[in-house]
Request: fold
Amino acid sequence: MPGENLTREEARERAALLSVDGYEVSLDVRSAVGGPEGDGPRTFRSVTTIRFRCNEPGASSFADLVAPSVTAVSLNGRDLDPGEVFDGSRLLLEDLAADNELVVDAQCAYSRTGEGMHRFVDPEDGEVYLYTQYEPADSRRVFANFEQPDLKAPFRFEVRAPEGWTVWSNGVGEQHDGVWRFAETKPISTYITCVVAGPYHYVTDTYARELPDGTRLEIPLGALCRKGLARHFDADDVFLITKQGLDFFHEHFDYPYPFGKYDQAFVPEYNLGAMENPGLVTFREEYIFRGKVTQASYEARANVILHEMAHMWFGDLVTMVWWDDLWLKESFADFMGTFANVGATRFRDAWITFANRRKAWAYRADQLPSTHPITADIRDLQDAKLNFDGITYAKGASVLKQLVAYVGQDAFLEGARRYFKRHAYGNTRLGDLLAVLGETSGRDMGAWARSWLQTAGVNALTPQVLLDADGRIDELAVVQEAAESHPELRPHRVAVGLYRRSQVGALERYARAEVDVDGARTVIAELAGQDAPELVLVNDDDLTFCKIRFDDTSLATLREHLGALTDPLARALCWSALWNLTRDALLPAREFVDLVLRFGGRETDIGVLQMLHAWAQSALVHYVAPEWRAAAGTALAQGALAELRQAEPGSEHQLAWARFFAATASAPADLELLRGLLEGTEEIAGLDVDQELRWAFLEPLATYGAADEKVLAAELTRDDTASGKRHQVRCLAARPSAAVKAQAWAQVVESDALSNALVEATIAGFERPSQRELLAPYAEKYFAAIGRVWRERSIQIGMDVVRGLFPALQDSPETLAATDAWLTAHEDAPPALRRLVLEARDDLARALRGQECDAAVGAA
Reply:
């Protein structure tokens, strides 16, 4: 990582000096197949021609390239000595002319970390697959360039590939004599260029639409995956969502899709969910489902498809100048993904998932010591890498939902339309978007932006209810609080709902007011005189971004009647609020676990149910008092088993409870049931134990020593695929043995032999909550190793190790003190590394506070 960390100031200086007219990139990836793997990096030839202008002739600058070696460099016909101008990450360019041509011939390395040109060998059939992933700055690992988003240019790619392969890039391609040549792109940033190559399975379709001017728009569609996944690939559903999304965005954006074709590649060992490369979107292949999944999984996939499609306008057509304004693309895409899902697809309840799942990510991120304004201060590329976080995505999307409530949907969409037309193929900053929104809404966008985009932290809104002598509301107010570290009290457009039980026991809304809440206390005059509520739900309908709190009456109602809430969004908001109370040590974790056990079985929304399962597990692992863990774990497992047996046979709820039972099983009888389901000696009516569910059942068996290496090897023989290998690696690392843990640690920390996907699987298996004592020796080793890992490994692997191996399971004041000692002793460590450790420390401190809260209940 040293020498590769471009700063914002360097990027500003270079953008002021240079403008780029175009790139021609020639890659030869025939070396991807054949030959021994060897100890050194496997490389490919990369020849790049860049034509660019310099507005100060005679000045010096640099181009970016991360490569093992450079064969030749030519600047304006003048050969340069690679040894003198290339330092491993930059090419020095001196005495520039007004018009320049740079030619760089380099040997670039294939990646095993998902950064740059990733090379994957399919264990099932030995086939090799390539794809590129660049954001924020890894295109320089594949070709020489000016790696910053505001130096846009057209690109022409050509690729020499092994015989029998197909190659895709951003533009339409044609193959002649073994060379694939692609149409020149529109001006785009380096980080969204893309190449995918290999013997992929490819399916095609076409999208057509009549435009308002009477012309007909036709967009060729493609979808591709590894051959081994072809039998599972439901391309028809991918195309259905794609066409629905294109219809939706054309209708609302009034700007035709600008990038020609629309391919979507599902690729192996992908670090992200997906990437918005124009004309060639890449996705993690886990979105191709090998077994039965719930509708929540299909909804999530549709959301990602639409998120990336929104980027074609927000991010690709119009791109931020620098990563400070990353929200200009990610927040909008996150909002638009759900907005389009609800408006165009079968997933009409996607805002419920957003309220329950996406915002949980944002609430956590906004309470970390590393929280930042949505418009962040991004000093360099390492900062940028870490800012693809819950603030930029989910909080930003939540704030945009609040903005739509603030200015109105019509004004918001008209602002977007003007923004695209005004800045097409250009780069923008915050002020450019605020300008058009101010025009269309007539609102003071500066004040809104200062409160919502330029300050950090999450507000808490709590209702206060005073009743008159007749039992009616005399005054209802909303109290707003902020953390001491981030004291901003924001203006909120909220709906306040009043709920009470009907004669049949249903908890239903009988009054609602949509109002502006501003300052420390706001009286809701519209609700005065209403009958006394049993539940007051602030932020009903989820219009704003805040933590919901409850008055005493409302909390008592939820403790007894949460399952009676008939509206699924209101119920999801209450569950989310209760989870935030648990994380904030205001509700004992055992109470949250009890609520899940009592009311989880009545949850109709499958996405909310699966989120409850995840939260209940997190409560058990992190927030329950240690002395109650065993009892809580037993209660969750038995509750899950009871719900599993009662669920409708073959239903997605049955599947969700089966997975939750496997995740909580630890007692010998529970493990024997899982073994029986695997071997066919036990049966639960309607439960299809497919291959993915088999691995889910094997994981607890491995964790508790009931499935050894031989059993796991036999299962890999049954499922000898890339997915099977990842599952096996995780299960192998989960076994309760000191030797197993030592081997897993060495494979991840002391060696770089594993690919990114297998590093992730090994870490997941290594960290087992039931093995706290076994893992205790690695706390000290962690703090001794992370500095070296950060220096020597790629930033992606560094992030995986620092986050994944932090000794959170050693949840004691001693581990907190060790973390503080490391931070004190390493004040000069890279800021991105310190941020990761600070975040882990905060999670640990929060867990200890939660355990203290829970223990106090037990003591009482």
Notes: The mean pLDDT is 96. The first helix runs from residue 8 to 17. The chain is about 45% helix and 20% strand. The CA atoms of residues 311 and 333 lie 6 Å apart.
